[in-house]
Design goal:
The protein has 156 residues and is α/β, with parallel strands linked by helices. Helix content is 41%, strand content 19%. The chain is built from six helices and five strands; from the N terminus they run βαβααβαβαβα.
Length: 156
Amino acid sequence: MKRNDINIYISYFHIDEYFKNLLNDIIGENYTIKSSPQEYYIKNNFNTYMDTLNKNNENDENIFIVLVGTDTYRSINVDWELEFGLSHQNPILGLCLPTNDDYKKDVCTPKNMPTKLLNNLYSGYASYFDWTDSFSDLKEYISISINNKIHRHALI
């Protein structure tokens, strides 16, 4: 049975689609999963992209999970999705993927992270954890992200 009160919005760079699909398999039975628009004409136009996100997420409580691979910081669409989530005061959860050199390390390399995610990690608004296949761990990470939102303000 899905929890209809929370939607999970997965933000990722296209080369990390495997992990997006895996995350969907792990948590999809318990949460409604949403992803970015894939149409070329939408992906390359900021205003159209934001309009599509607004239509797809009207009146919804969303949590944005950002899959942070090696090249995620290069994705303009991830940047736009973070801007959308932050401007709507949605919780942000970064997951460091096994393909990222920072995976399972105690520190992260700032230059390899999307700037909006990094700024909100520094402020305490966003959460950041290593990738896991454990539903119970992911559920805990989501809970932590929701709690961070309650006590901090997003930096757009």
